């Protein structure tokens, strides 16, 4: 039986619904042409996401017609997906050719006259200078438009995140099983990474964070070849990837009993995680939900070492990271309303210099009854 390795993660109808949702937002705002350049946003709308060499844009017209502008070599991807992807028309930019000229000409051809253009101001902002300017009355900022649509995940998206979560959780278990005194953090990282791939993970947007000892207090520092000693605090944070939908898990271990301080820090983080699971519900604001987590640290006298938001959105993402902070997050002074189907990496963690990073992580989907795990395991501190 042949396998279609170029299949899209979702049915065509789901992508067309996303396209039409974008068109509805464009109509509300009076936008004739939307120029997108976020890889994650283009992937969400079409099913095509590539780490293309050079700039890539997706131009969407109000009536739903769309066209790619990308490096000529990269158009091979679009040709391979013809008949599977709703946007299979593209304009190639030759090496050495001016991207801005080609992009501006394509926009003018697709929407002649004086259209109202909305642009995601990212790596394409400079390329568009001379054709559109942020100060022009007819040019709008499209940043955040597609992100608004990405906040609530469909059942098909949640299924991919759940599969990725189980892969990530297994990689942590495999790392813990292989853990031994004297092995290096690099050797442990190799076990974790191999487990991700062996259990079905696709390309990951970011390598796992694996570290031991007080160095773990340095956010996102990963392996350096240092040996792991008895009593060291060990951090393992991988993300499984299925069709570029990433679900991270953060787990904490030691060989032999950790210090009393580390034990207490974990207990406080686990209490905060449990409080969130017990009390956060759809309809709350992000701020209200954040305060449920934060109040535990304040009550227990650990607020000084909680230096990050309690949770960030997860979904379909690309390098350099697996998070969707620009889509949604649970953080103070943020009035966005929580909805069923939002997916988060809930990670109440404490960073204390000289001790390390300790937390209680759980990738989760928000349901009518509260959070539900996407990894199928428990947040426990593992001791060998």
TrEMBL record:
Residues 18-152 form the Creatinase N-terminal domain. InterPro entries: Creatin/AminoP/Spt16_N, Creatinase/aminopeptidase-like, Creatinase_N, Pept_M24, Peptidase_M24B. The keyword Ribosomal protein does not apply. The keyword Transcription does not apply. Residues 160-358 form the Peptidase M24 domain. It comes from the Bacteria. Keywords: Plasmid. Gene3D superfamilies: Creatinase/methionine aminopeptidase superfamily, Creatinase/prolidase N-terminal domain. This is EutD. The gene is eutD2.
């Amino acid at each position: 039986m042949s396998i279609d390795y170029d299949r899209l993660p979702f049915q065509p109808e789901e992508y067309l619904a996303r396209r039409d949702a974008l068109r509805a937002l464009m109509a509300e705002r009076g936008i004739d042409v939307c120029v997108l350049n976020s890889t994650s946003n283009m992937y969400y709308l079409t099913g095509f996401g590539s780490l293309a060499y050079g700039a890539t844009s997706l131009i969407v017209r109000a009536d739903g017609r769309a066209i790619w502008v990308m490096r000529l070599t990269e158009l091979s991807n679009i040709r391979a997906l013809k008949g599977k992807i709703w946007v299979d028309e593209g304009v190639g930019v030759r090496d050495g050719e001016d991207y801005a000229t080609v992009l501006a000409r394509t926009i003018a051809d697709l929407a002649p006259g004086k259209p109202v253009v909305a642009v995601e101001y990212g790596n394409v902002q400079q390329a568009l200078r001379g054709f559109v300017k942020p100060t022009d009355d007819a040019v709008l900022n499209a940043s955040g438009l597609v992100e608004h649509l990405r906040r609530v995940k469909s059942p098909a998206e949640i299924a991919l995140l759940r599969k990725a979560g189980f892969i990530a959780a297994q990689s942590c278990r495999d790392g813990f099983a292989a853990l031994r005194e004297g092995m290096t953090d690099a050797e442990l990282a190799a076990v974790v990474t191999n487990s991700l791939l062996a259990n079905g993970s696709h390309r990951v947007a970011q390598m796992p964070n694996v570290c031991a000892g007080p160095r773990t207090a340095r956010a996102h520092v990963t392996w350096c070849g240092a040996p792991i000693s008895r009593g060291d605090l060990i951090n393992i944070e991988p993300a499984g990837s299925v069709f570029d939908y990433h679900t991270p898990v953060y787990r904490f271990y030691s060989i032999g009993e950790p210090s009393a301080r580390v034990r207490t820090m974990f207990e406080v983080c686990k209490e905060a995680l449990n409080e969130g699971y017990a009390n956060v519900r759809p309809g709350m604001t992000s701020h209200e939900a954040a305060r449920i987590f934060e109040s535990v640290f304040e009550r227990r006298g650990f607020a000084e070492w909680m230096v990050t938001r309690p949770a960030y959105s997860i979904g379909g993402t690309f390098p350099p990271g697996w998070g969707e902070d620009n889509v949604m997050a649970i953080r103070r002074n943020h009035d966005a309303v929580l909805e069923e189907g939002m997916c988060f990496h809930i990670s109440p963690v404490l960073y204390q210099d000289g001790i390390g990073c300790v937390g209680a992580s759980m990738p989760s989907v928000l349901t009518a009854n509260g959070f539900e795990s996407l990894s199928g395991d428990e947040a426990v501190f593992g001791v060998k």
